[in-house]
Inverse folding.
């Protein structure tokens, strides 16, 4: 075995160890879909909660959805919970389908549990803080806390899954920090972070994975032809 063979073997062992300790089946399409979900919710929030009269086709109770009212608070809570549930279900289903396509088994092993714990500890903490702010009528920095805690959750989770997720988290942190210095644009920053940035990152993540897969296939084909020779 020459030096090049030894180096390649060590790299293969390193890749295997990283894959065994990281959750690698996140689907880029699911990230795009989550961004679309969030964009729809942001549009609905702008329509129902904005400083304008509700559309004529909306029910009468929507007229009570003004700034700093209990109706607005509970609607925001319900929408946030629904969005989290649907988004988590989308990630789970698409990750499950991805493992099936590559003939792998999707199980809740220690790798999945560690990545979920790393994500949900800061995410749930931020959710409870935002819930307390909404129930006490402090709406101004709610979107900031959502973006910041979500960004921290993604960065924390990236240590146990693909490192690219950290880039999504840093984008959320940056938008959250900018949001806390800008007044009355919470819904806009919420859309930019949870909606638009998810879509942009999801496209980047999907294209990068496809390029990596194509490169690996080319290397494998080259290696197979060399072995035949």
């Amino acid at each position: 075995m020459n030096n090049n063979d030894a180096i390649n073997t060590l790299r293969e062992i390193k890749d295997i160890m990283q894959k065994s300790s990281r959750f690698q089946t996140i689907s880029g399409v699911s990230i795009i879909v989550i961004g679309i979900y969030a964009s729809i919710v942001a549009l609905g929030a702008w329509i129902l909660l904005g400083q304008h009269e509700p559309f004529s086709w909306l029910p009468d109770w929507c007229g009570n959805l003004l700034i700093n009212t209990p109706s607005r608070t509970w609607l925001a809570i319900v929408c946030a919970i629904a969005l989290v549930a649907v988004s988590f279900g989308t990630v789970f289903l698409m990750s499950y389908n991805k493992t099936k396509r590559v003939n792998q088994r999707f199980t809740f092993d220690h790798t999945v549990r560690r990545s979920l714990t790393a994500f949900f500890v800061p995410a749930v903490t931020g959710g409870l803080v935002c819930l307390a702010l909404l129930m006490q009528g402090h709406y101004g920095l709610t979107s900031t806390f959502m973006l910041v805690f979500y960004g921290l959750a993604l960065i924390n989770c990236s240590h146990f899954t693909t490192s690219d997720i950290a880039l999504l988290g840093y984008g959320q942190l940056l938008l959250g920090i900018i949001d806390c210095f800008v007044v009355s644009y919470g819904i806009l920053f919420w859309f930019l972070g949870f909606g638009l940035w998810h879509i942009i990152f999801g496209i980047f993540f999907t294209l990068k994975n496809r390029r990596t897969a194509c490169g690996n296939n080319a290397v494998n084909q080259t290696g197979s032809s060399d072995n035949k020779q």
Remarks:
- Residues 40 and 195 are 8 Å apart (CA to CA).
- The helical segments are 3-21, 28-49, 70-101, 110-135, 142-157, 165-179, 186-228.
- The chain has a mean pLDDT of 76.
